[in-house]
Specification:
heterodimer, A: Jelly Rolls, 6-stranded antiparallel sheet, B: 9-stranded mixed sheet, two-stranded antiparallel ribbon, 13 helices, 31% helix, 16% strand
């Protein structure tokens, strides 16, 4: 039952598949390669390891090639399917003959696939080079045929495809739809009513183009474009592993935003990221961008094996490189040659070698300071530089004084045993106290020639001799000493110490020399103690608490040195506090000497095989290098060379995807043999080669796409067209898809007037439900989400703090990725949790109230008010039917709130109640705007 | 009753709910929006199923098999001696014990045969010991990862690298839903535990969907606030008003659908309706007031406290009753590098009676027959000691050990009262019938009527599957 139903669906899908039936002649790359790749290449493809029967179906010629005649038979005999072993095998009814075999766990070829292979052999069985590995070419578009779809090669190609599929383009969408579509596509924000009015009232022929220019000039454009990039390169705010510590990347994010806004050409945009550190005299931007190489997940020190962590980081970098720039699944060649694409395992490790020479550590420390791991740069301004220089100067000065002091005092010359270990009893008062005084008197026959006092306390102590303040020391200083002969006198001398702090225990030794004879005083029960000024002195006791430090004399330093050390500590602490205010960016740097890379057998980090050098796969154009060892900069130059077939296509496809919801190549992460055939290869080629010619001009590319008639079509279409082509691959209408999580939230904030448009800066923490971080955190480390309190909670969602182990639910529920790995395209599913989020999230609900207040502040007329909120939220005006329905619903809400005033009061706070008429009224309006935010048309880009 | 609210509820009841139900197929390459098969009491995706649902108890941090399940009386004589190199074979260890002595450490806990089957169990699990005749102990489980993060990621998603689909999401994708009012895959993580040392982190990827459609994501129930995020209406909105609001939204959406022709609008409407129903079905699920005393007693005293493992076991039973496909419990605090006896005692106490209660409760309701209960840590612990206090037998720790550890299954189609696989006398290597974690995955799927080689999803050019590219085998020896 289940099975037959599946087949029914499969057949239907194929019959309607946009690219199968349109053109009757066979195109190898489009029609045949995907079948061979999916069903055959695993055993008859590039990978030697799994190859069966000395046969490769991925190449036509050579000993193993598919068109090479065998001794007494043909794999493929051009023109004669029945004479071809391939045809015989895919059509056989016998279990031990049919291909793919049972144990390949592949579904057999469908009737339509068999038909296509048969026809291909009949037509000669010709192979073609794989399309994506040939450079893109400018297209000579088909002749102009349709109304105003003639000016643009893109439109002409799209129209030709529509025509061959028996379809007509849709008319241009109305202006309100267009401005809303463009605003979301280019800036991720809805248009304001003023912007709509401006566009509507502009009847000039260039109104639309001017709108595009205005939007491309907005700072919000850069934020929006950078957000897509962030998914791709897995930009997050934490390590993503183990204790998931903070990892600081806000300068990289800011650089992305700036780069898009300043329209940094795409070739430079990616070169900086890949190899900014290898530019001659790199600028700050070069270095910040090179942080791309640091965006991988990373573990903190402690349990993992550093050599394994190193390997995992490199693997992660290679995957990012492959996905982001090549659009290839190079990571599949880590353990063996790629099964489908001509990437050998050696190729993989040649690429690996580019990323295997990072100068820093493979693991972070525990709780990295400022979320940074060397190497990094502090992004100071001149004033801050000056201040840092001051700290440096002060430090230097103190350091010099420290050395001078040691020279001047010459303690070790005078007292050679000063830092020898000595056993000195610790004493304490009878009762424990936070403050204890110690006292001892010593009679001297004459003033000593020399005297050294050494002392130490388990907490903190101040020392006086004959009323002179000698100095103080604390346990962390591990012992103090001073030359004190000048304070001693003939006759009675009083030593007094005041110990403070939680831990008891004080030790002192006074050495003095009179007439060349040395004598000592040490702490003992003979000393007196008291805990309060007015108390009587009592005998001290020997302290027996644990943790007695009997090595302190070895580490004791002079009080003069200690004073300077304290000064140094203070300078360092001040410097650290100051640094907290300075952004810093992690950067890439090469290790010297370079680390040798080996092919790792089976991809295992501890199984090195043959050594390999840096290089690029042979099926792509050669890489040039002027040094013995290719650099990442060489790799970057190679990527952006004009003959590279992938870089521009992969980029253009993703920009297209962000504007149409799906790429021309749907599998935007995979342009290899297993990827999908492009819906419009000529459009992709035309745009890509033009993109290169334009100097990799991103804004120009975007403008070129959004000014096509293809883009401007209405998304209204008969249901049958949606059923047959749900993703609009044929481009027979405007695309219609749900907005991304960020755009949905940003719209709510923007419409309600709450959006804080501050650009750049550290990530922010809008409120989220309690308990989420606790659920996953290791105890006491980074375990509580503390939301921001100020208007940072209303920043655009792109600035929201992204903990990779538990990303913000407002985002992930609406399909935002976790940023643990590269995602070239988000999926969009429609779930009940999304419905709950939009119905109940407290900030979203609150924004509905703010929106209602805004509208009520502008008009007191119900119809005007309803029309206004409808327009604010949907960019459209309600027709009379809808307005009537809204009126009726508003009245019904009001009725509910009038009969349940306690509910109304829960919505209308006392502050709100002062400013409006009636809590029930505000509550009803709130529910009205809340309802509108939950409409499909508010959540969908159409 | 308010007319439009009533009207909305009527609409809900009339509608044959979720026409485009959320079932995946396991058959590759179908466009996502075209999978309209409604799940029913099917016999399994590829062959007859023994189990309809799974309750997976993941002991995060890795409990010591040597002190709980895998009795090694011979170690007593060897206690304190170095582990022979022919046993350890220079295999890698963590940075914590690298370069250190490997002193054999016998368990201080008593073991005794239990039940009719006579399976030997530690004194730390007195309640679970009463169920041995239902348990299938797999003593030869093994994995590769040596650290928590990759090992947990592997156990939950079949890969050490993040980005793959989790067990429960595969099941949701392959088998579809049996209860359209509740999520298909629920995660219950304990908020409290006894072993307060070195508590390892969790990550939402452990119940993520990776490349599978997002609707198959595990839903983590919260122990504070709403059990399902954003379930409750905001203050000032009651069910009546919510009904009115949804009624309005549905009317406008329906009108819009007539203009646009996009069937996604119908899905939106259906999901909003389901959200509305979840607002009652979830509280009904988590409201324990209909449980009688004797049932609560089964799970032990902590069942009264939200966020405990005991409470989560009871919730798991309630979910099994309501046909939630995959319920995954996480209990943390098992990473006993130091003072293992103290901490393990506490941890065992956390879970012993609750699991026993769960098994009893499932059994007496006839649910154990088609519910598979699985118990596992992400790996095991070493036979040699770590952080020993000299002269104190009762104070030792054990390091991570992926080469052998004990997991167990009960119910849904597995033999009870058996021990499968053996470790060597040191409990260091597998001696007989190794079971890799991916074999465990394959077996779990088999019991659910799924061929692990056939439940695939195309991504990055490969037919992705839970068991990955390495071969995996169904452990035939434990099938009932």
């Amino acid at each position: 039952m289940l099975l037959s139903k599946n087949i029914a669906i499969l057949t239907t899908v194929f019959a309607l598949h946009p690219f199968a039936a349109a053109d009757t002649s066979i195109n190898f790359n489009r029609d045949i390669r995907p079948i061979l790749s999916d069903k055959c290449f695993h055993c008859h493809g590039p990978d030697e390891e799994d190859r069966k029967e000395d046969l490769r179906l991925d190449i036509p010629d050579g000993k193993l090639g598919a068109l090479t005649p065998r001794d007494d038979y043909y794999i493929i005999k051009p023109g004669e399917p029945e004479e071809s072993e391939l045809w015989f095998r895919i059509t056989s009814d016998y279990e031990d003959e049919v291909m793919p075999p049972e144990d390949a766990h592949k579904a057999p070829l469908t009737d339509s696939e068999i038909e296509r292979v048969t026809q291909w052999i009949k037509e000669g069985g010709a192979y073609e080079d794989y399309w994506a590995f040939l450079p893109p070419k400018r297209q000579s578009p088909p002749p102009a045929e349709f109304e105003n779809w003639n000016g643009n090669p893109i439109d002409r190609i799209v129209f030709a495809t529509l025509k061959s599929n028996g379809l007509q383009p849709k008319e241009e969408a109305d202006k309100r739809t267009l401005i809303r579509r463009l605003s979301f596509d280019l800036t991720g924000l809805p248009p304001t009513i003023e912007e709509i009015d401006e566009f509507l009232s502009d009847s000039g022929s260039d109104a639309y183009e001017n709108l595009v220019d205005r939007l491309l000039d907005r700072p919000a454009y850069g934020e929006h474009m950078a957000r897509h990039w962030a998914d791709l390169v897995r930009l997050g705010d934490t390590n993503g592993m183990h204790k998931d510590f903070h990892r600081e990347f806000s300068p990289y994010r800011d650089w992305l935003i700036r780069s898009f806004n300043e329209n940094l050409p795409y070739d430079q945009f990616i070169s900086y990221q890949l190899a900014g550190d290898e530019y001659e005299n790199p600028t700050r931007d070069h270095l910040i961008a090179s942080g791309f190489n640091r965006l991988h997940m990373i573990i903190d020190k402690g349990t993992a094996l550093p050599e394994e962590s190193l390997h995992k980081n490199v693997v992660d970098r290679v995957e990012a490189f492959g996905t982001t720039f090549l659009g290839l699944t190079v990571q599949c060649a880590q353990c063996h040659d790629h099964k489908y694409d001509p990437i050998t395992q050696e190729d993989y490790f040649r690429l690996y070698a580019f990323f295997n020479n990072f100068a820093g550590n493979p693991e972070t420390v525990r709780e990295p300071e400022r979320g940074l791991q060397p190497p990094y740069i502090n992004l100071t301004n001149p004033k801050q530089d000056q201040k840092l220089a001051e700290y440096e100067a002060r430090r230097h000065d103190a350091q010099i004084r420290l050395e001078a002091t040691a020279r001047k005092e010459r303690i070790s010359e005078k007292w050679p045993d000063a830092n020898k270990r000595a056993s000195i009893p610790f004493i304490a008062s009878e009762t424990n106290s936070q403050r204890v005084e110690f006292r001892y008197s010593v009679d001297l026959e004459s003033k000593p020639e020399a005297a050294l006092v050494r002392f130490f306390a388990m907490s903190k102590v101040e020392l006086y001799i004959n009323g002179h303040h000698i100095g103080d020391t604390r346990a962390s200083e591990k012992g103090a000493m001073a030359l004190v002969e000048s304070h001693l006198q003939a006759g009675s001398n009083t030593i007094k110490a005041i110990a403070t702090g939680p831990k008891e225990g004080f030790a002192l030794r006074l050495d003095y020399r009179i007439d060349g004879i040395e004598k000592q005083v040490v702490t003992s029960p003979d000393w007196s103690t008291r805990t309060g000024k007015n108390e009587a002195w009592k005998s001290a006791r020997i302290s027996t608490g644990d943790g007695r430090n009997n090595k302190w004399t070895e580490t004791a330093r002079s009080l003069a040195s200690l004073a300077i050390s304290r000064e140094l500590d203070q300078i360092d602490a001040d410097r650290r506090t100051f640094l907290e205010t300075i952004p810093a960016a992690m950067t890439m740097a090469e290790r010297v000497p370079a680390r040798q890379t080996f092919i790792l057998t089976g991809g295992a980090y501890d199984a090195p095989g043959a050594p390999v050098e840096r290089g690029t796969p042979a099926f792509l154009p050669p890489m040039r290098s002027e040094s013995d060892r290719a650099t990442r900069k060489d790799l970057a130059d190679w990527l952006v060379s004009t003959e590279h077939p992938l870089t521009a296509r992969v980029a253009v496809n993703r920009f297209w995807q962000s504007l149409f919801g799906v790429g021309l190549v749907k599998t935007s992460e995979d342009f290899g043999a297993q990827g999908e055939w492009p819906s419009h290869p000529e459009v992709l080629d035309e745009l890509s080669s033009h993109f290169i010619e334009s100097g990799w001009n991103i804004k120009k590319l975007i403008k070129r796409i959004v000014t096509t008639n293809t883009y401007k079509q209405s998304s209204n279409a008969p249901a049958i067209e949606y059923e047959q082509d749900p993703e609009n691959r044929l481009l027979s209408r405007g695309s219609r898809f749900r907005l991304d999580a960020e755009a949905i939230r940003d719209q709510i904030l923007a419409v309600s007037g709450q959006l804080n448009r501050t650009l750049y800066g550290k990530s922010v923490k809008p409120p989220q439900p309690p308990g989420l971080w606790e659920m996953v955190s290791m105890t006491s480390v980074n375990s509580t989400y503390i939301p921001d309190k100020d208007d940072n909670i209303y920043r655009r969602s792109f600035y929201t703090y992204w903990r990779r182990g538990m990303p913000p639910p407002q985002m992930t529920i609406l399909n935002a990725p976790s940023r643990e790995f590269c995602v070239a395209r988000r999926e969009r599913t429609n779930t009940s949790l999304q419905a709950l989020l939009l119905m109940n999230e407290s900030e979203y609900f609150n924004a509905a109230k703010e929106t209602a207040k805004l509208a009520l502040g502008k008009t007191r007329n119900v119809e005007d008010g309803l029309s206004l909120v409808y327009e604010m939220i949907t960019s459209h005006l309600p027709d009379q039917d809808r307005l009537d329905l809204m009126k009726e619903t508003l009245a019904s809400f009001r009725e509910s709130y009038t009969s349940k005033p306690e509910l109304a009061k829960a919505i209308a706070s006392s502050e709100d109640q002062e400013s409006t008429r009636d809590p029930a009224d505000l509550a009803a309006w709130t529910l009205m705007t809340h309802s509108l935010f939950n409409l499909e048309i508010a959540k969908v880009r159409r | 009753m308010d007319p439009s609210y009533q009207q909305f509820c009527d609409t809900l009841n009339r509608r044959q709910f979720i026409k485009k139900a959320s079932i995946g197929l396991g058959v590759a390459a179908l466009p996502g929006s075209l999978s309209p098969l409604v799940a029913s009491s099917q016999p399994g995706l590829h062959f007859p199923a023994k189990a309809k649902r799974v309750i997976f108890l993941l002991m995060a941090g890795a409990p010591s098999q040597l002190d709980l399940f895998d009795y090694k009386p011979g170690l007593e004589k060897l206690h304190g001696q170095p582990l022979p190199p022919e046993i350890s074979r220079g295999q890698r260890v963590t940075t914590m014990t690298r370069g250190k002595k490997q002193e054999i450490c016998a368990s201080i806990f008593k073991f005794a045969p239990q039940g009719q089957s006579g399976l030997v169990m530690s004194e730390l699990l007195p309640h679970l010991s009463k169920h041995v005749d239902d348990l299938c102990l797999i003593k030869s489980t093994h994995t590769e990862a040596i650290n928590h993060d990759p090992a947990k990621t592997f156990f939950c998603t079949g890969s050490e690298m993040p980005g793959r689909a989790s067990m429960g999401s595969w099941l949701s994708y392959g088998m579809g839903s049996l209860n359209e009012n509740l999520p298909n895959f629920v995660v219950l993580a304990s908020a409290t535990w006894s072993g307060k040392v070195n508590v390892q982190a969790l990550y939402s990827r452990l119940w993520g969907t990776g490349f599978l459609p997002g609707k198959h994501q595990g839903i983590a129930f919260q122990s504070v606030g709403d059990p399902v995020l954003f379930l409750s209406n905001p203050e000032g909105v009651d069910r009546n008003i919510r009904g009115k609001m949804l009624d309005f939204v549905e009317k406008v959406n329906t009108a819009q659908a007539e203009i646009t022709g996009d069937p996604e609008i119908q899905t939106s409407i259906a999901q909003q309706e389901m959200a509305f129903r979840m607002q009652t079905s979830v509280p009904e699920l988590t409201d324990l007031s209909d449980e009688d005393e004797s049932t609560l007693d089964l799970y032990g005293p902590e069942v009264g406290q939200s966020g405990t493992f005991a409470r989560n076991c009871l919730l798991a039973r309630r979910m099994a009753e309501r046909d939630v496909r995959f319920v995954q419990l996480f209990h943390r605090g098992w990473d006993h590098h130091t003072a293992l006896p103290t901490h393990l005692r506490g941890q065992a106490k956390d879970v012993d009676q609750p699991i026993s209660g769960l098994l009893t409760d499932l059994k007496r309701r006839g649910l154990l027959d088609d519910t598979l209960v699985v118990f596992a840590g992400e790996f095991g612990r070493t036979t040699y000691a770590q952080n020993l206090t000299p002269g104190n037998r009762g104070n030792y720790g054990r390091d991570h050990h992926p080469r052998c550890f004990t997991t167990w299954m009960a119910g849904g189609g597995v033999k009870g009262g058996i021990s499968y696989g053996e470790t060597d006398d040191f409990c260091y290597n597998v001696a007989k019938d190794p079971v890799h974690v991916r074999d465990l995955h394959a077996t779990m799927f088999h019991l659910l009527g799924i061929d692990h080689n056939k439940l695939v999803f195309p991504y990055q050019g490969l037919d992705q599957k839970l068991t990955g590219v390495e071969e995996a085998h169904v452990v035939k020896g434990i099938l009932a």
